[in-house]
Amino acid sequence: MIRLYDTLAREKRPFVPLNPERITMYVCGPTVYGRAHIGNARPPVVFDTLARLIRHEFGEKSLTYARNVTDVDDKIIAAAEKEGVGYRVITERYYRDYLEDMGALGVAPPDFAPRATAYIPQMIDMIQRLLDGGHAYVAEGHVLFEVATDSDYGILSRRDRDAILAGARVEVAPYKRDPADFVLWKPAGESAEQVALSFPSPWGQGRPGWHIECSAMIEAFGGRQDAGHVETIDIHGGGLDLIFPHHENEIAQSRCAHAGAPLARFWVHNGFVDMGAEKMSKSLGNVVTPAELLAQGHRGETLRLALLSAHYRQPLPWTEALVEQSKAILDRLYRAAGDAPAGGIDSEVVDALSDDLNTPAALGRLHAIDDPAVLKASAGLLGLLSETADNWFRGGADEAAVETRIAERAEAKKSRDFATADRIREELKAEGIVLEDGPAGTTWRRE
Ligand SMILES: [Zn+2]
Fold it and tell me: What's the rounded mean pLDDT across residues 135-150?
């Protein structure tokens, strides 16, 4: 039995899906205007791991996992204008990079990756229903959600009115009836790129607000033909920073458009990745990206293990030591698993993950597994040990060239030219290749 901490209920609850054969999970995906940093990588890695657990528990085909792509946003327009390129150059480049980075971290592609720009008619339709139901109003080319019409507003973040108005992201504007009201649709603006990234609507040329995007795409659930119209999904996930206002607003829109039906049965939020005492964020400029770390020679699996080393709801301080430690742990696990085929999965690893995705406990348990085949399969549930041990220790190196150097070194040693032998060893070490001399000759591995 999987138990998950539900932010709405403020407690761990047994995860009982509405339909165990068709479980639905939606996670808010990237806004594609810049390269993802390692903090942005935490939700995809965490929810990828949860998806693996759900599929293990309920069956490979039980889960439909959707992760959207926000490809309409003022930040995208700003990035395009700054570079002097069309917005599509920005969205295509950064989405491609995002998929590459997440792929390197062993994140499987979601079943559906709906792009906001492909769901504009669905958003317009939902906004119209909110207008018809008296939950929204039109003012100066904007459509706004009227928070006062939703008596449950604040249910997720448990904020009262004062706290909501104090929120940094509440924008005071003359066209709002109340400062807490939020945008469902806004006018296009006049710059070339603002016009390029805009759509016709009953309220004029414009763009959707960010929150309505997720509500409308969840309803369409990736446009899957057999899914039909979805009002309530099993799991809605994302980072802690999305609780307010984004998820609070998603809840309000969806419930008001669906006669009170809840949007999600479980709200699951991951904590931040911290740099020093601060949250890692683009606006603070204290970011490290997976792309940089990979370019430095770190392996994707090392970064994945680092991201899973703390419980997902806890803050994760990102340090070089954490990366080094994670590499050492993987070396040990790869050595223990060798090249065994994947066997059965250890029940204690499953139990640890089933307890609100307790990845530190699951990782700890891996060290106690004696059977290499069971270790391989159990680590696989966390998306680890996906390579052969041989590839982990030696992959990426030009094997023939290394063997040639080893032969040269053996020759040098034979003629008692130890200076040359040492130099070859040092040169290989600088390339990340470690030589080990044994009775049967010299073997090598990656550092
Ligand atoms: Zn969202």
Answer: 96
The whole-angstrom separation of Cα 188 and Cα 185 is 9
The model's confidence at residue 168, banded by pLDDT at 50, 70 and 90, is low
Cα–Cα distance measured from residue 315 to residue 14, given in angstroms and rounded to the nearest whole number:
24
Interatomic CA distance for residues 340 and 378, integer angstroms = 12
Enter the pTM of the model. Answer: 0.90
Span from the CA of 47 to the centroid of ligand 1 (angstroms): 14
Instruction: Round to the nearest angstrom and report the end-to-end CA distance of the chain.
Output: 40
Q: Is 230's pLDDT higher than 90?
A: no
- Find the 273 Cα to ligand 1 centroid distance in Å: 19
CB 264 within 8 A of CB 233: yes
Q: Which amino acid is at 251?
A: I
Find, among 100, 432, 431, the residue nearest to 290 by Cα: 100
**In 172-297, beta strands by DSSP E:** 182-187, 206-208, 233-239, 264-270, 273-275, 278-279
Distance from Cα 251 to the centre of ligand 1, integer Å:
10
In this predicted structure, the answer to whether residue 376 has a pLDDT above a threshold of 90 is yes
Pairing of strands 273-275, 316-317: parallel
- Could you list which residues have their CB under 5 Å from ion ligand 1? 28, 214
How many angstroms separate the alpha carbon of residue 69 from the centre of ligand 1? 10
Looking at residue 33, the DSSP 8-state letter turns out to be S
Cα 132 to ligand 1 centroid, rounded to whole Å: 23
Q: With 90 as the cut, is the pLDDT of residue 87 above it?
A: yes
